Amino acid sequence: MGVEEEFLLVTPDGVPYAVAPTVLRLAADLPSDPRPGGDLEKEFKQEQVEVSTHPCTDLDDLLAQVRDGRARTDAVARQAGARIAAMGTAPHVVESTVIPDRRANEIRARFGQTAREQLTCGCHVHVAVADDDEGVHVIDHLRAWNAVLLALSANSPSWLGSATGYASYRSQVWGRWPTAGATAPFGDAATYRAVIAELLRSGTALDDGMIYFDARLSARYPTVEVRVADVCLDPQDAVLQAVLVRALAETAVRTDPDPAPVRAEILRSWTWRAARSGTTGELVSPTTGEPRPAADVVAELVDHVHDALVATGELDWVRARVADVLRRGNGAVQQLAWRAEGADDDAVVRRAADVTLG
């Protein structure tokens, strides 16, 4: 498993800062590692940057890598006069800047306001699969649980200077892209590839890098890439996402496909519910299709992957982490608590930058 995290670049005062090209030039001088992942990479806007971990099997190793990646990225950003903040959206009114890249400029021209306003940061989890057919089986199995993963990660309650009333407004902004969101079950790799080909033929996606499904086959690695989560404020919450995704994948491989899969239209409503209230209200139970308290639905997820977590020795850790998230709240809850204490936009970002580094 591995994790990719996108971060806002901000000034020391807490304002989004279009300095990614400088940060990436500085990062190019860092020692290289031959293993996949681990690099600082560009994102769509100059006010953000992405860092990834190397593949690993142990959660302690993954947590160390997530913390190290955040620390390295922040250290390089400081050389450019910036900091990083793990926030799904910036709270400020900001005119974000597309990176100086031909593809990015074509996306901006083709997708208009959706591209102009696109300044969001997510957490992407990769889990290894044996082949594309196994990967599609995992993707189909994940469909019912992706909304619960989003609720645990929700970390974007503000947008363009306003409180949104959502725990994850990033997911609402991201949903504007034509290929984003929940998918119907594919069944096999051939069907998955046929759907991708049809989307590309339609011209509504520039290339396969713009296939923004909640979960997809990675174009770079032999993995399933789960893209539903906000970037997590706490580094341990990012690792929780990875461990749960791996457990869901292991559970999928051990089980047959759902004989009555939930329709994509229904899944979109579950995702909206998770984005709206996160872990503080109700979520839709994947087992009953009815609203239940978020803590109960999260418990359903842990029960669903119980055997996989026992096999890897991660059950107690997951239970403790889930209890902690439900007790202190996800990133959205923490941001709103700072607001209640009197923090303005700049102060919220500064506090987020501090928590980003643990």
UniProtKB/TrEMBL annotation:
The keyword Glycoprotein does not apply. It catalyses: L-cysteine + L-glutamate + ATP = gamma-L-glutamyl-L-cysteine + ADP + phosphate + H(+). GO terms for biological process: modified amino acid biosynthetic process. The keyword NAD does not apply. InterPro entries: GCL_type2/YbdK_subfam, GCS2, Gln_synth/guanido_kin_cat_dom, YbdK. Its EC number is 6.3.2.2. Keywords: ATP-binding, Ligase, Nucleotide-binding. One of its GO terms (molecular function) is ATP binding. SUPFAM superfamilies: Glutamine synthetase/guanido kinase. It is an enzyme of class 6 (ligase). ATP-dependent carboxylate-amine ligase which exhibits weak glutamate--cysteine ligase activity. Belongs to the glutamate--cysteine ligase type 2 family. YbdK subfamily. HAMAP family: Glu_cys_ligase_2. This is Putative glutamate--cysteine ligase 2. It comes from Cellulomonas algicola.
